[in-house]
Design goal:
Helix content: under 10%
Strand content: 35-45%
Number of domains: 2
Strand order of the largest sheet: 6-5-8-3-21-22
Structural class: mainly beta
Number of helices: 1
Order of helices and strands: HEEEEEEEEEEEEEEEEEEEEEEE
Shape: elongated
Number of strands: 23
């Protein structure tokens, strides 16, 4: 009987325990399985060192008041070579700052707006091998559990995470430990298929990755050859539910639907190539206000032999990406006697925060 009651209480305790959740940084990487770069040595593999990251709160999907209980990373999946793990003598601190990825300086102590919390160590941490075919990591990820959970409150500022590596079992030397690293990512969505032109193909529309300071670039393909084309762009808009174009273009095929708002259009024109392709490009100002800005677009192409004399592509919608709102400060040498380091802006490995 006692055993049954213990089992019952154990089951109930598990049922009411706080749920563990994962927040990924940058938060748009929920939709990105692999970043375009790798972080070869930070935060763990720079040797005896002091490494600090600032993570801007706007990209941290941890609810106010939740406790962060561990931090995690994932191996770079585009590589095949194994990177060996090491044993570290490590301390991790967390705190808040009024600085941002653009303003953090190289002096460690002055970045904190309050007293940091030591969430791990100083203690030994054994890092796993990366890309080890004999012992693969679950989902390619690993986590460092905290001995002291960190209460998250973004009203206090952006998040600082500091790694103090006092030694490793490679004689303190650096080594390659290549983690997946983030970069800007533009979220793109497309509407339902367009309509066939007289050559039997359906035009397509492809929107390129973009961020402030780069180019907006959209490519029309599989369209009528050497034909006049118009790309209609609606700044600040999303795609809308498909609607009939027959009031605008009498006789056009019913499968040719409008998918962008009718107001606020900015038309870009041009001729398609001999293969039925056309690319439109313009510069996006290098201004933070364009981060997360939306554009909706759709192309129309004249085709004398198609119903109504025109066909359209599917609509496309893009949310302009932003360089990672994270920067790193790296100082080489004994952590306690290394007061400053070198700043690399908009740089961070893809990071996971477990919270409850």
């Amino acid at each position: 009987m006692t055993t049954k009651f213990l089992l019952l209480f154990s089951t109930l305790g598990a049922a009411i325990a706080p749920a563990q959740n994962e927040a990924i940084f940058p938060d748009e990487y929920e939709a990105v399985a692999e970043g375009p770069f790798d972080s070869p040595r930070v935060p763990f593999a720079r040797g005896i060192s002091r490494v600090m990251f600032v993570y801007e709160a706007v990209d941290i999907a941890v609810p106010t008041g939740n406790q962060i209980t561990r931090i995690g990373f994932r191996e770079d999946g585009t590589l095949t070579a194994m990177d060996p793990g090491r044993v570290l003598q490590l301390e991790i601190r967390m705190g808040y700052t009024t600085e941002t990825a653009a303003t953090i300086s190289g002096t460690f102590a002055t970045q904190y707006s309050g007293t940091p919390v030591t969430v791990f160590g100083p203690a030994m941490l054994t890092l796993p091998n990366l890309r080890d075919s004999a012992n693969p990591l679950p989902n390619g990820q690993f986590f460092v559990p905290f001995s002291t959970p960190f209460q998250y409150d973004p009203s206090q500022g952006n998040l600082l995470v500091e790694y103090l590596v006092y030694g490793n079992n490679a004689g303190g030397a650096p080594w390659n430990y290549r983690l997946d690293r983030a970069d800007y990512y533009a979220t793109r969505n497309y509407g339902p298929g367009g309509c066939q032109h007289s050559g039997g193909q359906t035009p397509t529309l492809t929107i390129a990755n973009m961020r402030p300071g780069s180019n907006y670039s959209t490519t029309l393909a599989s369209a009528p050859q050497s034909a006049f084309a118009v790309l209609s762009i609606v700044p600040g808009a999303q795609l809308v539910a498909p609607y009939s174009l027959q009031n605008l273009v009498p006789g056009i095929a019913p499968t040719c639907t409008g998918q962008i708002p009718l107001v606020g259009n900015l038309p870009l024109t041009g001729l398609t190539s001999a293969s039925g392709a056309k690319t439109w490009t313009f510069a996006i100002p290098n201004d933070p206000s364009f981060a997360d800005f939306r554009f909706a677009s759709q192309a129309a192409v004249f085709d004398f032999f198609a119903p109504g004399g025109a066909v359209v592509s599917p609509g496309g919608e893009v949310t302009v990406g932003v360089s990672p709102r994270c920067s790193v400060v790296v100082g080489v040498g004994p952590p306690i006697t290394t007061p400053s380091g070198t700043v690399t802006r908009n740089y961070c490995p893809v990071t996971f925060f477990t919270h409850q």
